[in-house]
TrEMBL record:
Organism: Mucilaginibacter antarcticus
Protein name: EboA domain-containing protein
InterPro entries associated with the record: EboA_dom
Length: 277
């Protein structure tokens, strides 16, 4: 048993009964155990200690089980504990689980991506999952999941971020949101804003987080619009975007709003805390 399996089992034991633990130790095909897990375990939300959170993060940086249900945790435990010595056979078993999965099973499968063996095998599956319209599945891929930022190619990553805005997801929970910002994504975000403006709709102020590091003449026009036509939250977002940039015309514009500069410098205003209208 690996260190990761050991920690997961300790967490499971602390959140379930001896009967469930006895069932978990039985030998059976993975697909059988995977399918019946909720009926055996229930779906109560688990509790995790700070030490366990730290241990998991040490073994798999960014990976967490906080807020999970017990059946989700046990399914992930089963996945990482399955016989993976034969790469092709292991891929076949997990791929078949994906193909036959209902929503709860998909949530577990995508949640397990950061800790599954052979991470290169699951890139296409992850990219495919982004096209889902099931909120819980999208959140399993997007929220507190280090796999996409580490393994997705840029086009798929950009699709994930744009889908997060389409579906009103909290991008503060997306690991790597700043580290994987790129100019192509900044253009996509700007184009998306123009489409919404043309339709008379508002933009998500947090989307300018992905534009700030790449401010230029084109993007500066968007930032000026936020100051001139937007609500207070839009001006705050514009100020934060400018604070990420060295583009001097934008810096000069921000100088006209000393109260926003002070709020950023005093850590009273950040992307993580940006709220309001």
């Amino acid at each position: 048993m690996t260190a990761l399996q050991s920690i997961l089992k300790v967490i499971i034991r602390a959140n379930t009964t001896n009967t469930v633990m006895d069932w978990l130790d039985e030998t059976r095909p993975l697909n059988t155990a995977f399918a019946v897990t909720p009926r055996k375990t229930g779906k109560s939300i688990i509790t995790v200690t700070e030490e366990q959170v730290h241990q998991l993060d040490t073994l798999a940086p960014g990976f967490t089980v906080e807020g999970w249900s017990i059946d989700r945790l046990i399914r992930v435990y089963l996945l990482v504990g399955a016989d993976s010595r034969d790469k092709e056979a292991y891929f076949g078993v997990v791929e078949n689980l994906f193909l036959a999965a209902e929503m709860g099973e998909l949530v577990s499968l995508y949640s397990a991506l950061p800790v599954l063996p052979y991470p290169e095998l699951w890139v296409k599956r992850c990219a495919e999952g982004i096209r889902s319209n099931i909120g819980d599945v999208l959140e399993a891929i997007m929220y507190h999941n280090p796999y996409p930022a580490k393994h997705l190619e840029q086009a798929a990553w950009n699709q994930l971020v744009l889908k997060a805005f389409f579906t009103d997801k909290d991008i503060n929970k997306i690991i790597g949101i700043d580290e994987r910002a790129n100019q192509d994504l900044a253009h996509i975000i700007s184009d998306y804003a123009h489409e919404r403006w043309a339709a008379g709709r508002e933009t998500n102020p947090k989307q300018w987080r992905l534009v700030g590091p790449f401010l230029d003449d084109q993007f500066f026009a968007d930032i000026k619009k936020l100051f001139e036509d937007g609500k207070l939250v839009d001006r705050k977002a514009a100020a934060l975007a400018i604070s990420q940039s060295n583009y001097q015309p934008a810096k000069a514009l921000l100088d006209k709003y000393p109260e926003l500069i002070a709020a950023i410098q005093n850590n009273e205003l950040s992307w993580d805390t940006l709220t309001g209208q």
